[in-house]
Structure formats: structure tokens, C-alpha cells
Amino acid sequence: MMVGPFAWRLAAAALAPLLPFHLAWRARRGKEVPGRLGERRGLGAERPPGRLFWLHAASVGETVSALPVVEAMARRDPALRFLVTTGTATSAAMLAGRLPAALAPAVQHRFVPLDVPGWAARFLDGWRPDAGAFVESELWPNLLAAARARGIPMALVNARMSPRSAARWARAPALARAALSAFGLVLARSEGDRDRLAALGAAGARCWGDLKAAAPPLAADPAALARLREAVGTRPVFLAASTHPGEEALAVAAHRDLARDRPDLLTVLVPRHPERGPAVAEEAAAAGLAVARRRAGGAPGPDVAVYVADTIGELGLFYRLATVALVGGSLVPHGGQNPLEPARLRCPILLGPFTQNFEEAVARLLAAGGALPVPDGGALARVAADVLSSPGRARALADAAAAVADTHAGLPDAVAAALLDLLPGPGGAVEFQPCPPGLSGSTTV
User: Where in the chain is the domain with CATH 3.40.50.2000?
Assistant: First the structure.
């Protein structure tokens, strides 16, 4: 199907009258904040005085990886103000909880407007950013066209373009070229991403590495962690982190197999979308297991076999608590969540076969012996048992993973300097060591 910019614009405008009903439906499902639906139509601008930088990060992972860049930009230019847009309620809650106190007054959050021409124009005319950046893979053609028409310098950082997404965009080459032409700077996270972006029209794309490899460790409240450790005691903990539908059933089945030899095993399920917590708990209970839910006030006491951690922003607690962890989204065809998060916390890692969202990081972890592959759900208990039964193996996995996660420490500062160079005023060329040869893009999925 050949779709160009004009056809996309017409289609989006035609759908606009129906989109408020779609937003209301999402709000009923907990995917939007009811009192802030106007922001999705470009309303709610409160532009601060001075220079304003706009950063768009679609969801939680992109927001977490971008925060060190925002902090580095603020250190270099304390007067700069930031507008951060996201597309999910969970990312908004996470941003509010993770922003350092010193940085919070300089940052305003809004939900990104849907890609309707009039809504995009209203948003940009209200906020009037001096420059902006998109993180990873969201390309909204009308919003980007509106930014380009207003002369707003834009960058695409930690740019990601999976083979599957590249194939979809290739069916609309004019639309892809138009969207990518809005970016004067494209910094890809891997050589493979850079090549796919260049083939779609981002001719000047460069690879500086993955910001998620440079992110700080996930936060954890010390008092909450102490309470959890007291409740768990010396029990081994099998964690299934950031799971997607279908993976919880596989983790519960693995728990039943593992518990034959380890009757004191605690399995912790952290669904990627916390609103699924009640359904996840019901599924585990239907398997005959004693279940507690964190959001309902439950604790992982000695009589609990499965603990459902259906809260926002607490994954750092459970990676610190786990004896071994499955990184979710990798046992079902989702593409995997970020494996560098457990690596930074020295948690032994298990990865299913669907890891294309983090192909470079996974390739490096597996090559270094920092993670164990799980070929399918049926093998999950066997591979987890290999770690649970061998503390030495667990330490070796954790050490190797931590070494991999320690790369690209200077990347946030380098990206910050490049983004500041987009703003009006004096600046200079920014250089950074490109992706290490033989690592980035070395795995194809």
C-alpha cells in the first residue's frame, strides 16, 4: 500500500471526529488519564519563559533512557526548560516519581497529541519549543511535518528501526522520507538500526550506541526493599519481569516444576502493564497456588507461592530481590524488554527467543556469558533450575552481565551536548566514539 504525506494527513483529519471516543475508551481501561484527555488534542499549553527544549519519549523505557540526557543538558544549561511528552499513563507516573528534586521545577510533562494536523498545530503553536528530540522509534508524520514547517530543529536519538518496522515503512517510502526529513540529527542505537534508517531516508544517520546501556540502575526505596527482604527471608526468588500476556502462565508452570525440588520457592510476577494485575493473580490462583497482590496490600509471606507486583516504578526492588530473572516480552512474540536493567543490578538473566527490540544488548550479553537463553516456555524451569542450583553459576552470570552494562558511560553527556547544539545560540560540533565494531547490529532476528 503506497501512502504519502498528503494521504496520511487527509486520513488523520477524517478520523479526528472519532478519536475522542477512542480516547474515552482507553481512559476506561486505565490507559489514559481521564482529566488530561485534552492534552491528546494539543490543549493545555503553559509555555515557560526562556528557551524550551521538547523531548518526546513514547513510554516507560524511552523515558528512563532519556532522563540522564535531560539531567546532563540541565547541568550544562541551568536556565533551560524542558517539555517532556509521553504517550502512556505509566510513563507519566514513572516520570513524576523518577525526576530528581533539583530538576523537577525545570520539567513540564504533557501527553503527546494524537497525529491529527490541527491538534499537532495547536500543540506546537502553544508551546513554541526552540528545539526538540524524539527518542527511539516513534515517527508521527503530521507532528513532525508541523515542526518542520515551523523551523523547529529536531533530532531522533537512540533511534531504533527493527527489521519488521522497516519493512512496514518501506511500503510507504514517501511517508517515511517525509517523516525522517524533519530530523537534522539522527543518532542510532546500533549499526543495524542506522542502516535501516538510512535505507528509509535518514542519509546522515550515525551510530553512537544505546542510551539504555548507559542508564543508571533502576531505583528502589530502601525501606520497601528492607521490608520485602524481611518477608522473603532466605527463600529463593524466581522473577518474571515486565511480562506480557501468555508469559505469566509459562512462569506459573515453571514455578510448579521448580517447586517440586524447592518447596519454599517464591515466584514474583511483574506484569508490564500493572492494570493486568488482578487477571494475572486470578490465573495463578486457578493453578492452585497461594497468591498475593502488591497493589492490594499483599506481602510475600511464607505461605505465598506467587507474588504479583502490579505497581508502577518498583521493578528495581524485585531485580534486587531475585535469585534469577526472566526478562519479559521474550517468551512471546513481543521482542523483549530491556535486559540491561537486571544486568546493572547483578541479577542473573534468562532470555527467551524473541529479543529483537534489544538485539545489540542481547548479542553482547550472550557473547559475554551474561545471560542464559531459554528456547521456549517448556525449557524455562530447566534453565532457571540451572541457576537456582548453582550459586557459582549465578555469580558468573551476574559478573559478566554487569561488565556488559558498564559500557557507553559517557553517552548521555555526548547526546546532551549534541542536543544543546540544536538550540539558538553559540555551539560547536560534537563527536563521540561510534558503536564498537563487531558488536552493534551483530544479531539479526
Answer: 222-405
Q: Which CATH class is domain 5-214+410-420?
A: alpha beta
Cα 352 from Cα 326, distance rounded (Å): 8
Residues in the chain: 445
Options 39, 62, 138, 359, the catalytic residue: 62
Task: Dump strand ranges (E) for 300-445.
Answer: 306-308, 324-327, 349-351, 372-373
CA distance 83 to 387: 44
Its pTM surpasses 0.85: no
Closest CA to 319 of 301, 335, 343: 343
Q: Which CATH superfamily is domain 222-405 in?
A: Glycogen Phosphorylase B; (3.40.50.2000)
62 is annotated as an active-site residue: yes
Write the pLDDT tens digit of every residue in 306-342: 999 999 889 999 999 999 999 999 999 999 999 999 9
Is the sign of the CA dihedral 121, 123, 129, 132 positive or negative?
negative
Domain(s) of CATH 3.40.50.11720: residues in the chain: 5-214+410-420
Q: What pLDDT, on a 0 to 100 scale, did the predictor assign at position 432?
A: 54
Instruction: Tell me the C-alpha distance between 112 and 12, whole Å.
Output: 15
Torsion sign, CA atoms 234, 238, 240, 246:
negative
Burial class (CB in 10 A: 0-12, 13-18, 19+), 100: exposed
pLDDT digits (tens, 9 = 90+) for 345-359: 999 999 999 999 888
